[in-house]
């Protein structure tokens, strides 16, 4: 599929489209949309003092993808590390290169910020995304554990 799109920073006027995409992303992972988390995340993404940023993909004036990133320190690096926490492209626009373009834009931003590295996680069953990730990054071999 060939479509025109642009990658740019999130803008305050993007709230309705961003919220719709964010809801679809959380639905994809069967995670309920908590209104407090929604408001907090929106505020953080729009606060230049927060160590976070959001890049969006826009097609025909409508957002069709997003990348949420969190910058943090680490014990194995002097410079910040960029965690690509959320990457999502609406299903009807997949296959047009938007996901890869979002990741490349994150690479560019992290490079401009002089980050030591960029990393992200995906579910092992997310085979479509993993095909892309295997082409543009190195799989670390680490397994995530967590406590809620």
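Q: What amino acid sequence fits the structure above?
A:
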């Amino acid at each position: 599929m060939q479509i025109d799109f642009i990658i740019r920073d999130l803008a305050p006027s993007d709230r309705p489209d961003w919220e719709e995409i964010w809801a679809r992303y959380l639905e994809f992972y069967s995670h309920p949309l908590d209104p407090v988390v929604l408001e907090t995340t929106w505020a953080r993404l729009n606060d230049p003092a927060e160590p976070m940023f959001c890049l969006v993909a826009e097609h025909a004036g409508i957002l069709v993808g997003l990348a949420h990133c969190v910058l943090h320190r680490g014990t194995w690096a002097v410079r910040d590390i960029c965690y690509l926490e959320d990457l999502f492209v609406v299903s009807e626009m997949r296959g047009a290169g938007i996901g890869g373009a979002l990741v490349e834009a994150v690479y560019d931003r992290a490079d401009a910020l002089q980050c030591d590295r960029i990393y992200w996680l995906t579910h092992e069953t997310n085979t479509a995304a993993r095909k892309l990730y295997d082409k543009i990054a190195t799989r670390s071999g680490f397994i995530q554990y967590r406590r809620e």
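Q: And what stands out in the fold?
A: The chain has a mean pLDDT of 94.
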